[in-house]
Specification:
The protein has 318 residues and is mainly alpha-helical. The chain has one domain. Helix content is 52%, strand content 6%. 50% of the residues are buried.
């Protein structure tokens, strides 16, 4: 499994220069100018919540199911009302922290190349559109019913505790990513959070580091790290079960997978089962949001594509 992941990374990196050139010269027929879905894109910047607990994973299996603003600790947790602003992320995502406004002022280790484009080439449109519909059906036919049943029998406090546990378990992804970005202070906060929540927080089921010590999660992932070093998206990609991505972020997803402790659990069936449970648990918080966003969009595929790029641009510049 690990050898295959590394081979995929190597293959993508090998093809990256050629695909990047193709992306620069390709003018996608269905490309909708960024900004036509401003409201949808803005919702994605409410939280930086791109790290997930299971397997490969950043986005959802439906081409970006929306996520409401959540407080990710057991005490004081509440879901936002149905008419509250939402962010478009994935049911694989963790509830995160508010993203700071991009004032354009950067210095020291926070300096980042302003190479994030407002749009992305989509030369694999037929494949991407097919995967978008596949993920959409998967959500409505399998993931949503399972999540609804799980929500009906699992108390909210249990579901929140499970979410906190997997969030704590994926600390290596955020810790290493912050180290690679030379954000040593943020990496240090992640390390302290892990120690506190793993001990006092009972294996991470309670976010004591946040509720008692004001140590908030320091979101970061490998795709974001590559972006901060000036590597562009390349081309747009949609993967089955994973959802929206890009050439760069696909490499990042593979890196996140290798840093995720769940991926090292044997046998493989057990690892997949744990990942599946994690995703069902996360989706139970967001049932109904994806449907609302999809219904409001003129062309959901184009809207989610533009919103994804705007969201990734925002967190790279954070």
């Amino acid at each position: 499994m690990k050898i295959m992941a590394w081979l995929i990374c190597f293959f993508i990196l090998l093809l990256y220069p050629f695909l990047a050139v193709a992306a620069q010269t390709y003018e996608p027929e269905h490309l909708q100018p960024a900004g036509t879905e401003e409201k949808l894109a803005e919702t994605m910047t409410v939280m930086a919540d791109n790290i997930s607990g299971g397997g490969f994973i950043v986005q959802d299996a439906v081409g970006m199911a929306p996520v409401t603003g959540l407080t990710d600790n057991v005490t004081g947790y509440k879901e936002q009302p149905a008419d509250a602003p939402v962010i478009v992320a994935g049911f694989f995502s963790r509830p995160g922290e508010p993203v700071k406004e991009d004032t354009g002022k950067r210095n020291g280790n926070d300096a980042v190349e302003d190479g994030e484009a407002d749009s992305i080439a989509d030369p694999l449109y037929p494949w991407n559109k097919l995967m978008y519909h596949f993920n959409d059906r998967f959500y409505f036919w399998m993931l949503k019913p399972l999540s609804q049943g799980y929500k009906a029998v699992a108390p909210e406090v249990v579901r929140i505790g499970v979410s906190n546990f997997f969030q704590n378990l994926t600390t290596p992804v955020r810790f290493v990513s912050n180290i690679l970005q030379l954000r040593i202070d943020r990496a240090g906060r992640e390390f302290v959070r892990f120690i506190v929540n793993s001990t006092i927080g009972v294996a991470g089921f309670m976010d004591i580091a946040k509720t008692r010590h004001d140590l908030t999660m320091q979101e970061a992932d490998i795709g974001q790290t590559l972006g901060r070093y000036g590597i562009g998206h390349g081309i747009y990609l949609v993967w089955p079960f994973i959802g929206p991505s890009s050439l760069r972020d696909t490499v990042g997803l593979a890196g996140d997978h290798l840093l995720n402790p769940v991926s090292y659990i044997n046998p493989l069936e057990t690892s997949i089962g744990i990942t599946a449970y994690d995703e069902v648990n996360e989706t139970s918080f967001y049932i109904g949001d994806y449907e609302a966003i999809k219904k409001a969009a003129i062309d959901p595929y184009v809207s989610f594509r533009n919103a994804y790029i705007q969201h990734r641009k925002k967190i790279v510049r954070e």
